[in-house]
Amino acid sequence: MLPLALTMGEPAGIGGEIALAAWLRRGEGVPPFYLIDDPDRLARLARLLGREVNLQTIAEPGCAPAMFAEALPVMPVGGTPRATPGKPDTADAKLVLRAIEAAVADVRAGRAAALITNPINKDALYRAGFHHPGHTEYLAELAASTKPAVMMLASADLRVVPVTIHLALRDAIAALTTEGIVHAGQVVDAALRRDFGVASPVLAVAGLNPHAGENGGLGREDIDIVAPAVAQLRAAGIEARGPLAADTMFHAAARKTYDAALCMYHDQALIPIKTLDFDGAVNVTLGLPFIRTSPDHGTAFDIAGKGVARPDSLIAALRLAASMAARRAQS
Fold first, then answer.
1. Residue 263 β-bridge partners
2. Which residue in 134, 152, 173, 227 has its CB near the most CB atoms, within 10 A?
3. Which residues neighbour 59 within 8 Å (Cβ) at sequence distance 6 or greater?
4. In whole angstroms, what is the distance from residue 74 CA to residue 172 CA?
């Protein structure tokens, strides 16, 4: 069994402590993983939090599964972060990116089953010269993907996909295209079948404007952009429904009628799922040649180092990645 590769994330955030907490809960069905980080930093963090964690440095991922029950395997990232809890340092950007690159290399080479990323601090990365809007776009570049990756947020009660992601709202509206919606729908349909075991996926496609535009009375985008995308998806054999009024898509009865919701912009997707399951939702990147999941929360600088950060979303991300890897191995 291949282990999962977990990146360090922003060292000033809660990534390290939720990784320690996830390992301490390994008896609850947490799949074996190794953490790409600085072992000395993790040891200091464990002492600060008063947690008894047996850390074991490893030279290659294959060592991780055998020792996981007794020790948390750590692959050295090759440097010592300067940040302290809640206080990021731009100089750490190279280590944050190095951990991601090392994990991607392990997954692509077949040394790890999947990639799980801890939250990054994009502001610090931007100031260090990082030119990607976020993790999703960076991973697509590392994977040499020819088509855009698709971000899904998944929980037990809801799966949502923002067609446009990290853009200002006015830019998201300008960037929305029929082609983009169709691409997202095709990728999501394939992923639901391959990675989630949904035999006949149903996609609910949200309208952009209130009430899906009121037949053009509140804007023509739903007539000119969204509706044609739904038609193209249906013509391709994908069960897509919409455009639907977004304000009635997410109550309990509505959620039972579809397997994933395609949303037109970031907050239209993330507000409902974070409201329903803030601690257990998982960020999944679809359309890559490898599996990538992540906790659906940020760096949480305000609570970093205080020992109160909950590992639930990370544990859910680890479990989902292992489940997806197992399905792919059987296909």
1. 162
2. 152
3. 75
4. 39
Instruction: Judge contact between 153 and 160, C-beta under 8 A.
Output: yes
Asked which of 252, 276, 300 is the last residue of a domain, the reply is: 276
Whether residue 171 is found in the same domain as residue 100: no
Q: Is 153 exposed, middle or buried (0-12, 13-18, 19+ CB in 10 A)?
A: buried
The whole domain housing 162 covers: 157-276
Supply angle C-alpha 267, 272, 277, rounded to 5: 125
Tens of pLDDT, residue by residue over 250-297, are 999 999 999 999 999 999 999 999 999 988 899 999 999 999 999 988
Report pLDDT digits (tens) over 55-108. 999 999 999 999 999 999 999 999 999 999 999 999 999 999 999 999 999 999
Reported for 20-23, long-range contacts at CB under 8 A and 24+ positions apart, including other chains, are 20/45, 20/46, 20/49, 20/51, 20/53, 20/72, 21/51, 21/309, 21/310, 21/311, 21/314, 22/311, 22/314, 22/315, 22/318, 23/53, 23/68, 23/72
In our burial notation (b when 16+ CB lie closer than 10 A, e otherwise), range 2-14 reads bbbbbbbbbbbbb
**Which tokens in the block code for residue 63?**
């060592």
When divided into structural domains, the chain yields a total of 2
Which tokens is 270 given? Answer: 């993330």
How does DSSP assign 55-112, residue by residue? EEE-SSGGGHHHHTTTSEEEEE-SS----BTTB--GGGHHHHHHHHHHHHHHHHTTSS
